[in-house]
Structures are given as C-alpha cells and as structure tokens.
Model the fold of this input.
Amino acid sequence: MTAGGAGALHHAIWNYSETGDTILTTDWFWSPYRVLCKEALRKLDVFTLFDEAGCFNVAAFRLKAASVLKDQTRLQIILNTPAHNPTGYSLSEKDWDAVLCCLKDFAADAGKRITLLVDAAYLDFTGDPSGRRFFKQFENLPANILVIVAVSMSKSFTMYGQRTGAMIGISSDEEVIREFVNVNEYTSRATWSNINRGAMKTLATICRDKALVEQTASERDGYLRIIEKRASVFMKEAKQEGLITLPYIAGFFLTIPSDRPDAVCDKLHDSNIFMVPLEKGVRMAVCAVPTRKISGLAAAVKKACDEVARNEK
Done:
C-alpha cells in the first residue's frame, strides 16, 4: 500500500533508478512527474507520444529509450495508461506489443536493468470491460525487466483525497519480487511510515464482501457515464467547430494543443472559463465541469484560440 498512486511513483523512481539517471516518459505528462524526479535528484526526459496519424509513436519511443540506455545501465519508463492524464489516450494491445518488443530487445543486453512503470491511476474509468487485458502481456518477460503498476484506490474506490494507493510488482524472477516487497516496505517506513488507516480499513471491508464490491462498481460506473457523456458532447462540438484536440479515448481530462496556452487560458478567463495551461496546450477537466456547462465550451475555446492567433499577427 502507498500514499496514493503518487506514492507508488515515488518509490519506483527512488528505488529503481540511480542518482543522476534520466527517467523517460511521454511529452504530454502529469507535471508532478518532473517534481518527483527532481526531488530524487533524477532528470526527466520525454519522447513524442503521438505520430502524425495520432497513434502511439513507437519509433520515437524506441529511439529515445535507446539513446538513454547508451549513457546508463538502468532505464525507467513511465507510461500513464489507460485514460492518460492529460490527453485521455489509452495504449492499445497493439501499442503494448510494440512497447514490449522494444524492451525485450534492450533487455537482450544482460547488463541493462529496465523498469516499466505503468501509472494506471485511471484504470477503472475507461468504460472498457477488457481494460485490464494488457496485464497478461507482462507475463514471462526477461528477468531484467521489472514491471511496476501504480494504482490509485483514491480514484477506483471513489475516495478522492484519502491518499490511498498501491504498487504492484510483476517479474519472472521470484528473487526480484522478494526484493521488491522488502525494499518498498523499508522506503514506506522511511517516508510516510504508514498511510490512511481509515481508508485501508474501508478498502479491506469492501474487498471481503462481494455485495459491497458490486455496489462500489455500480457507483463508480455511474460517475464514469457522466464523464463519458461530457467528453462525448465536447468532442462532437469540437469537431463541428474545427477545434483540434489530442486523441481522447477515456478519462478525466482532454487536451487542446496550443502554441500559446497561457494566452488562451487568459482569454478564456474573460468568459469565466478556467482551464489549465500546459507546456504545449490547454487541459480541460471533463471530470469537474458540470454536464449542463459542457455544450458551447468547444466554441468558446476555438474563439479564444483564434483571437490569440490573430493578436499574434
């Protein structure tokens, strides 16, 4: 158990990379990744998430990962999927095939140690009954590949703010998993000591009772349907308005690319619309905007983008 999904990310970075190492993730990412790396005296580098067709950019991933491995013996990759924050993208099974093919090629060098850190915080908000199937692809990987899955029970059990999560280690080597348990227990004791007892007790109570599990799933699915409806309306209107968005499949957030995200957000403030400026775009939280306020947002964002672009000329 960890202090939320972020606690699992912290432990993975701290225990499975070296001081000064470069951690790799996508160019669209949750900004605390950089803070977590910096705090641990690591660096964060990125590869281009999308190719020209709006699909997972396997070539960019392979190229950047190979470059990092030239300079260090360990490689840690953070992939936030499914329902990626901030884009809402999810890796397909074909994408996973390609990723794992690359990692197996790198692992052919027995001197390399590879950690694949899957940030699955939004796993239960995909709307896909087969959304866990990609876990099967982590079976029987080379012993020098460790998969760590970061889970946010705060989200999956609709207990936002209770800071409860878990990290799951997957390896073909029993000794690697024994070490995984021991070292992460030690790090937990040395950081937060123990996590939210009330949340842990609640989770244990739910998981021991099939009826409570079903009730929790039903309540969560109700929230999921609300998010799906909001995202569907926005994406439909964005297409009608000619507003370019990044590929969205599921999740709490979607993103509009922009060269001037701060200016666009400032312009939206004039209409009492508040979105988050990112390095290369504007993030909208479909989890937070009431459904009644979704219609018309795409048009407002398009107008703000156009006005900013005109002012630049």
Remarks:
- Residues 34 and 44 are 6 Å apart (CA to CA).
- The two ends are 53 Å apart (CA to CA).
- The chain has two domains: 4-203, 212-312.
- The domain at 212-312 is CATH 3.90.1150.10 (Aspartate Aminotransferase, domain 1).
